[in-house]
Amino acid sequence: MVYINTSSEIEYCNWCSSTIFPASAHHCIGYPTNDYELVIVCSKRLERYLRSKYNAKGNNLRKLLRSIENILDNQHKSAIEYIIDARNKLVHDELCVKLDNRNLFIYNYHYITD
Ligand SMILES: [Zn+2]
Description:
Blueprint (H helix, E strand, L loop, with lengths): L1 E3 L6 E2 L6 E2 L4 E3 L7 H20 L6 H8 L5 H19 L9 H12 L1
Antiparallel strand pairs: 1-4, 2-3
Helix pairs in contact: 1-2, 1-3, 1-4, 3-4
This protein binds zinc ion.
Zinc ion (ZN) binds next to loops.
């Protein structure tokens, strides 16, 4: 997985704690290789993040999102909805056994939490 630091400051990878310099790419090998595991780990971390950063309320991501949607911009809302939809598809759709776009899933996760 490649993550690109588009900011002007040093960032640290959430998964492996590597330093990511501005305008450089980080090739992370810290992500779970199994999509199910990735989706579950990201969902849990995202729930915790939304509760602590925005004081979101609810016992699942959809409710957490609904409780804070009036204070989020459209891009953050879309990114959270992407995570929810991708997770639901993988967890509930019998025919779906992997993420459609793993990199986009990770990108959206970082977009919200970084
Ligand atoms: Zn990393």
